[in-house]
Amino acid sequence: MLDAAVRSLASGDPGAVSGNRIAKDIGATWGTVKYQFGDIDGLWAAVLRHTAERRGDMPASAPATAPLRERVRAIIDNMYDGLAGSDSRAIETLRAALPHDREEFERLYPSTAAEFASWRQAWLDTCHRAFAGLDVNPDRVTEVAAFIPGAMRGITSEKQLGTYTDLDLARRGLTNAIVAYLEP
Known about the structure:
By secondary structure, the chain is mainly α. It is 73% helix and 0% strand.
C-alpha cells in the first residue's frame, strides 16, 4: 500500500493526495486504507516513515578523515541525487497539498507534522556528524543545515523544469560558499 501511495504521489498530480485515489490505485477501498492507517493523517505519516526507512540515515559519503570541502561536496551531491528520486517527488507533492500554516498543519495532521518534525533533528544530527573532527563552529553547522535543503530543492527544481543555468556550476558555487562560511 505504501509503495503504491508513493508511486501515486510521485506522479506530481495534485489529485494524488486523495485518499480515495490512493485506495483506487492500490485496488482497495478507502475503508481498507482507513482500517490500516486510521485516517488520511495516519496514511501520510506512514508514507513519510516508509520513505525515511528506505532512505536510511543520510550518509555524507565522505571519509571521516576528508577535508571540509570534500565533506560539503558529498552532502550537496547526495542531496542532489536524492531529490531527483520518486520518494522526494512524492514528498514534494504531499507537502504542496498540506496546509502551509504550521499551526493549522499541526492541528489537522498531527501525525504527519510530527513525522516531518522528526526529520529536522535527524538531518541536523547528520550534518553535525558530517563535520565531526573538524574545527567548525557548531552554530554555523546548524545554520548551514537549515538552508541546504531549500537551496538544493531550488537547484533540483531547475533541473526538473529545464534551465540554461549550469547546475554543476551552481552546486560548486554552493559548496564553495558553505566551505567559506564554515572555515575557521
